[in-house]
Design a protein that fits this description.
- The protein is an alpha+beta fold.
- The protein has one domain (4-259).
- The chain is built from ten helices and nine strands.
- It has a five-stranded antiparallel beta sheet.
- Helix 4 runs antiparallel to helix 5 and helix 6 crosses helix 9 (217-225).
- It is globular and about 50 Å long.
- The two termini are 20 Å apart.
Length: 296
């Protein structure tokens, strides 16, 4: 029930391939995912000129405009390389940014498709009133025009279903669980009606967000990615999982906010990525929700 963003690839010059591309194959085209944030190196591949739009007409004949970063893999790799000095300046030279970039670059270079894009529609409600889109556009603009960035958000409150209420609605049969296994194997479309979740019967809870003010490109990136680095703190090594290193919860948090998760770190979403291995300790236990209301 967590809202995710997706790093996907396609041979079609169009955004949201997982929703609109016929024959989309998650096992091949879904490179990585993240929850409630956009990983930093994903953002480093794109510039403001790469934001593409797509207009979709809904069942009520209303037009909806989707916008997402999209560019060729070749261009994404070039822009990722260009961003390295700025990443080091933002995160500190004492961090092994080059190690992260090298592993991420390998995943993109071996994507096997012409284009790469970020699908972030599921996390648009992290900030109300399209502010998630505003900040993504500002984050991409800042790679080329970092000076004069200023973004202020007043305190906000809005309603959305909590995880507890969603789980309760599933147990009571108010939400019909789709066959996610089929979607992961490529037999379905994660955004098609077959796999959509209807939250209309779920009671909402008030969400409050403190206001904040961002005064630099680095601050915009840290807000969007949710990387948590105190002054002088270090990121965990880029080979944290590969070399089976000890790590803290904060280390794992920041590691994921840099790269996202592949199929092993996300418990089944997407494909294998160079920064993970199947038998690594990802620190989670799988808890099945049956939706049958079984007593614990």
């Amino acid at each position: 029930m967590t809202n995710r963003c997706y790093l996907t690839t396609t041979n079609i010059n169009d955004i949201h391939p997982s929703s609109f591309e016929e024959g989309f194959e998650p096992r091949k085209q879904l490179l990585a995912t993240d929850e409630e944030a956009v990983p930093l190196l994903w953002l480093a591949m794109f510039r403001s000129e790469d934001i593409a739009e797509k207009v979709i007409t809904g069942d009520d004949n209303e037009d909806f405009c989707y916008g997402s970063p999209l560019c060729t893999v070749e261009k994404a790799l070039r822009q990722l390389d260009d961003a390295l000095p700025k990443l080091q300046a933002i995160l500190g030279a004492h961090n092994d940014i080059a190690g992260y970039v090298a592993l991420f670059r390998e995943a993109i270079a071996n994507a096997g498709h012409t284009y790469v894009t970020i699908e972030y529609d599921e996390i648009e409600n992290l900030y109300p009133d399209d502010r998630t889109t505003d900040m993504i556009e500002l984050a991409l603009l800042g790679w080329d025009q970092p000076d004069g960035i200023h973004y202020k958000v007043e305190p906000q409150s809005w309603s959305r279903p909590s995880l507890e209420n969603i789980q309760q609605a599933i147990a009571e049969g108010k939400i019909q669980m789709p066959d996610f296994a089929a979607a992961i194997q490529g037999d379905g479309d994660k955004d098609s009606d077959e796999f959509a979740l209807d939250f209309s019967e779920v009671e909402g809870e008030e969400v409050r967000m403190d206001g904040f003010e961002l005064n630099s490109h680095g601050e915009v990136l840290m807000e969007l990615t949710q990387i948590k680095l105190d002054e002088g703190a270090k990121l965990p090594p880029a080979r944290m999982y590969l070399d089976e290193l000890d790590y803290s919860e904060r280390d794992q948090w920041n590691f994921t906010r840099m790269l996202g998760c592949g199929v092993h770190g996300s418990m089944g979403y997407g494909r294998e990525v160079p920064w993970e291995k199947e038998d690594a300790d990802f620190g989670y236990e799988i808890e099945m929700i049956t939706g049958r209301g079984d007593d614990e």
